[in-house]
Design goal:
The complex is a heterodimer of chains A (266) and B (276).
Chain A lengths: L2 H32 L16 H8 L3 H32 L5 H9 L6 H15 L4 H26 L4 H8 L4 H30 L15 H11 L4 H24 L1 H4 L3
Chain B lengths: L12 H22 L1 E2 L2 E2 L2 H8 L1 H34 L2 H15 L3 H11 L5 H8 L13 H24 L4 H9 L4 H29 L3 H6 L7 H10 L4 H31 L2
Antiparallel strand pairs in B: 1-2
The chains are: A mainly alpha (266), B mainly alpha (276).
């Protein structure tokens, strides 16, 4: 190996290490702070304690906002999976002009600034007479989740061999049965990956949700940011640790179901 | 109606209709409204906006911080993309977890964590003092360097993953063929490997740059009100200042920036694709 190649290998190793340490730092720090006794985020913590977790139970508004976020994410992901899969089938199977523009259009909410989309929706919904915050959240979040489903299911479908369905029918399957037994299992990894990322994107969304909240309806990120701005103490670290745990759980499940490398496909 | 001869097209209708009504139409309306004054078509909000030197600083802040974030992400992400594609199993799994796990955790959580990391007694400060780079602990929170570091951390996965996805497709035999023909390692990298990674670099840069231009939560938590970007100004004018005119103007400028990035990157990607 020439010195240059050795240097290139060394650079790769350094980059790998830097990446792992750099990317894990915020998560590790959050977890460490949440179990520390210090209220001013001293690290390493002078003593371990669970006081911030006890505080969690008494923090008003946190639980309702978590429930709102989960409901909105579940609803919008379900709707997106249905609409997105149908649309992807049309785009892959159909022979009509403008298919590329349609798929670009459907993925475009991912590429535009969330804040701008949120403002446009706020004014549009107002003009249409939709004033209820909760209903607006449900409707708006489908726009956030749909691109993830369309992008991933479209990719999976373009690799799917549709003659398999004909084969199943030749072997005596009814058409709906053939779809259920052949197409759905083939698309399952795409449903899981896109469903997970869509759900997380909805749970995490701030710039669109902020325009559809009122005193009673707040999503978790909105409530958390408000709390951070009002009283910055490790209570937020405690709830963040819960969310990190949830992410680890989701990762383990989807690793078992589709594999980590599949998740990294972009 | 030639298109409708194929009934499968109807399956696309619900999704397309949904997005048209609830997303495209409102965006179009926002755009139209920003150009209409009491006396019809007008550019006045824009001439007013661009006439104010403060706003030029806002635009400078926006583009400057986005540029720095992109540079930092590229510097770490380019070699990291290679490492991820070529590392052994253990390192690859460690990297995949380190990339995907933070992606599954919300931006509020990560930005809040960076508030802690960037404090005077935070991890970064302790680290730099321990290395001897800094003589005494300093606060990075509420500085531009802190903002860039935090944002680069949050957006780094979006640089690594596209680069990884092109690197892992590069046929190692290409480089070997180059070696057989007498090319030096550096020549092989510059002439064979590097051009093949460019599509990944373009899409990574486009992702990171456009996300940095429109970030809102990260600057609100890491730098505060005295450093305004187009995005924070847009949010503030709607949420706090109730100045919808200013907000619509900056929103349209942001929109134009985002679309410019998308158009430029897909043009570049097409050009790179055609020269292969």
């Amino acid at each position: 190996m020439t010195p240059l190649e050795t240097a290139a290998r060394a650079l790769m190793w350094v980059a790998a290490l830097v990446t792992v340490v750099f990317l894990m730092t915020p998560l590790v720090v959050t977890v460490a702070v949440s179990f520390g006794s210090s209220s001013v985020f001293t690290l390493p913590p002078p003593d371990w304690s669970l006081r911030w977790y006890q505080r969690l139970a008494n923090t008003r508004g946190l639980l309702p906002s978590l429930v709102t976020s989960l409901e909105v994410a579940a609803f919008s992901t379900a709707v997106a999976l249905a609409l997105g899969t149908l649309c992807a089938i049309a785009l892959v199977r159909g022979r009509f002009p403008g298919r590329d523009s349609i798929s670009t259009f459907l993925v475009s909410p991912l590429m535009l600034p969330g804040l701008v989309v949120g403002i446009a929706m706020l004014q549009g919904f107002k003009a249409a007479g939709l004033r209820d915050a909760y209903a607006s959240l449900l409707v708006a979040h489908v726009v956030i989740t749909l691109p993830y489903v369309v992008r991933t299911v479209l990719g999976a479908l373009s690799l799917f061999d549709f003659s398999l369905i004909d084969a199943a029918r030749t072997l005596g399957c009814s058409y709906p049965m053939a779809l259920l037994r052949v197409l759905v299992p083939a698309l399952a990894p795409a449903f899981i990956t896109s469903g997970m990322f869509a759900f997380l994107a909805s749970m995490d969304n701030y710039p669109i949700s902020i325009f559809f909240t009122d005193a009673w309806t707040k999503t978790l990120p909105i409530q958390m940011l408000q709390y951070v701005e009002e009283n910055p103490d490790p209570t937020i670290a405690a709830i963040s640790t819960g969310l990190v745990l949830l992410a680890i759980l989701a990762l383990i499940v989807s690793d078992r179901l589709v594999g980590l490398r599949k998740l990294a496909e972009f | 109606m030639k298109a409708l001869r194929d009934p499968v097209v109807l399956l696309a209708a619900p999704a397309v209709l949904y997005l048209t009504l609830l997303y495209a139409l409102p965006l179009g309306w926002l755009l139209a409204k920003s150009f209409s004054g009491p006396a019809g078509l007008t550019l006045q909000p824009y001439t007013e906006f661009f006439g104010d030197p403060f706003n030029w600083r806002v635009i400078g802040n926006t583009l400057g911080s986005a540029l720095w974030v992109t540079v930092v992400c590229l510097a770490i992400g380019y070699p990291a993309g290679f490492a991820l594609a070529r590392a052994g199993t253990a390192m690859q799994i460690a990297m995949l977890v380190a990339i995907i796990l933070p992606l599954s955790v919300g931006v509020v959580v990560k930005a809040f964590a960076w508030q802690i990391v960037l404090r005077r007694d935070g991890v970064v400060s302790q680290f730099l003092v321990a290395l001897g780079i800094w003589d005494e602990p300093q606060r990075l929170l509420f500085t531009e360097a802190g903002l860039v570091l935090g944002a680069a951390n949050i957006f780094l996965p979006f640089m690594i993953l596209p680069i990884y996805s092109v690197v892992k497709l590069i046929d190692p035999r290409l480089s070997e063929a180059g070696a057989t023909l007498g090319a030096t390692p550096s020549y092989r990298f510059v002439r064979i490997t590097f051009p093949l990674t460019l599509p990944g670099v373009v899409s990574g840069v486009a992702f990171v740059f456009s996300m940095s231009v429109s970030m809102y939560v990260i600057p609100s938590l890491l730098i505060g009100d005295r450093f305004q970007t187009l995005s924070t100004l847009t949010g503030r004018s709607f949420l706090f200042m109730r100045n919808e005119q200013l907000g619509s103007t900056t929103a349209v400028i942001l929109l134009a920036l985002a679309i410019a990035v998308v158009v430029a990157s897909s043009w570049l990607a097409r050009r790179l694709g055609s020269t292969e």
